[in-house]
Amino acid sequence: MSATTIDETSITYVLSPVGGGTAITHVAPFTPQPCNMLQLEDGLSIGWMVAGAWIGAYCLLFLRRALSGETGSDYGNT
Which residue ranges does UniProt annotate as crossing the membrane (predicted)? Predict the structure, then answer.
């Protein structure tokens, strides 16, 4: 079997018998799917979400240290 022709709307397959004889041709129509790769806008929005998560984690850590009184120079390492 081999794909002989690939168009925008179909693929043509040719099935050749092993023992010889007439080849069978089949045209399979298809609808190509749009590319779903990330674009610049997608990367920027994901990057800002990751940065926001890190900033939020730092704020929670800072608040925990401030509320527990670990704001000295050694941050509770005594």
Answer: 46-63
